[in-house]
Amino acid sequence: MKEIEFIGRAEKEFRKLPRKIQERFALDVDALKNGKKPFSETTNIKESVGPGAIELKRNGRPAHRLVYVEDEDTIYILHAFEKTTNDVDKPAMKTAKIRYKEMVKLIEKRKRDRRD
Fold first, then answer.
1. Spatial distance between the Cα atoms of 73 and 94, rounded to a whole number of angstroms
2. Rounded distance, CA 57 to CA 21, Å?
3. What DSSP line would sit under the chain, residue for residue?
4. pTM
5. CA atoms within 13 A on the CB side of 82
6. Within its chain, how far is the Cα of 22 from the centroid?
7. CB burial class (10 A; 0-12, 13-18, 19+) of residue 52?
């Protein structure tokens, strides 16, 4: 089973989402942990954030998103937010992209530490 790791303030953001949305995204992440597909609609957002970045979608008024990256061991939660526009939420994608870079550095550091 895969581990879950929040990058930056993603856990605080996740906890600020409405309870119903948290529960739905938690079900999605639990499915991912167990090697299954999430229940929510997804979009590959590699162009906006980085390779492997996926956006879980809960549409409605308001809409909510959760951005994650999955590798063989871990699901990295980069961002969770209320979507404020019908177009690409540029500030949210910028935050996710910054955290993507943090995640890459963290992974690289762990690989170096294992070699030492």
1. 25
2. 10
3. --EEEE-TTHHHHHHHS-HHHHHHHHHHHHHHHTT---SSEEEE-TTTT-TTEEEEEE-SSSEEEEEEEE-SSEEEEEEEEEE--SS--HHHHHHHHHHHHHHHHHHHHHHHHHH-
4. 0.94
5. 9
6. 13
7. middle
10-residue block means of pLDDT along the chain (116 residues)? 96 97 97 96 96 96 96 96 88 97 95 84
Report the amino acid identity of residue 54.
I
Closest CA to 69 of 53, 56, 57: 53
Cβ-Cβ contacts under 8 Å for 32 (sequence gap 6 or more): 2, 38, 68, 70, 75
Q: Which two tokens stand for residue 14?
A: 């996740």
Question: In this structure, which amino acid lies at residue 22?
Answer: Q
